[in-house]
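Methods — Computational structure assignment.
A single polypeptide chain was analysed. Its primary sequence is given first, followed by the predicted tertiary structure written as structure tokens.
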Amino acid sequence: MVKNKLFLLRHLPTSYNTEKVIIGQLDIPITDLQKIEFGGLSKVKSLVIFASPLQRCKQTVETLQKSISHIQTEIIYVDELIERNFGVYQGKSKHLFGDDPNFLDGKIRIEVTPEGGESLVEFQNRVALAANQILEALKHNHVLVVSHLHTLKMLTLLLKNMQIEPNWYGFNYENGKIVEVSINKKIDLHLHSNVSDGKLRPASVVKQAHEYNIDIIALTDHDDVNGIAEAWETCKKYGMKLVPAMELSCASKGDIEGFPDDLSIHILGYNIDYKNPKLVDLLTKHRQRRVKKTKDIVDSLKKFGYNLKYSTIKIQAERQMRVADIINHLKSHFPKDENYDACVKYLKDDVFYDLLDYDFSVQEAISIIKDFGGQVVLAHPLLLYRDYQLELLNKDVFNILIDYLCGLGLDGIEVNYLAFDFAQKEYLKNIATERNLIATIGSDFHGWKNRVSMIGEECENEEELFGRVIV
């Protein structure tokens, strides 16, 4: 993880910028001594400045130095940071090329090699040499790069390890404005779509993650992998990485001594073989069995005088009906009925456990994930569900659960979870370290009510996470 800060500055404007003339490698001076927008640069104490040797960048550096005399600076001019050579187009107005197929919205297409200019590969390889120098400097100092539009865009994509083609046109750098850029990967490995109990389609989940500037995500729908293909295609469009995953709902079923039987345990499986027809069939049959059982429960309420239809009961979690949904339906429609209290007692005392028994056992869930090539991670470790109600585990009960899971081959725990405070994250981080578990990052985004935020956190244990989960 890179802890020093990286700042990028596109040179101050020239007359060619104002007149919409293609500059390229022409050595044009600045004409506008506008005030540079500093952003977070004013807070650093020392700085290495890498700059293009073309005079418009040198003049920008000179102007900047007058305003940051309190910052200790080292200036390095790097030939590899000059602008791309646009060949025959240099010095000509963009307005002349409105119908030119080599242009898109007045800009030269990135894949085009201008006559007499640099190819995309040549330009990329050149800027990559500068990127290596900058990465080395970032190990010891904050860095500011003063360069040109195309060079800064190429540098950003190289440092972030992003694909060029789908991302090139998605961002811009303004003249004279310092921008802080993070090259650490932003990650959220716990997202839900409407394939299970989320609000948005998988493609829309990915789009929202892209808007949060998240680089790597996992779609973790409950007991279902049917949204991964759509998410994958959308990730490719935005140059993002997707970890194929799922979240299995489990019950202890009396297997964990000292652990409550009425809590649902959620197990995340990462890097599963989601295309495997055996896995798809297993999950499909599991969901079908649970729906059939739920319909049987609804039908059993006839003995209390309630002739309900499964399709008319509002499911809070969209796809998977729970006992609380049936109780809420009765409360809304028959609150004063003489059989109401007896029916609710039946649902809470008998049916609740019957339905919970249709979840996977913890051992089954871990075996499924392992059998299909995945890593096993405990979701929101301190918070487990009793139907729709979240329960905060005390540390003694939590340790009972962790001991049991580690005995079955647990690989990690979700340390950086959106609902956890700093103390809880630190506690879980220590548990992960002590037990050699992966510490993962996840928001549990659903798109509903209080679960509409994504994390997009930079990863502190990047090497470990990339080696063991993000592959």
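Note: The mean pLDDT is 89.
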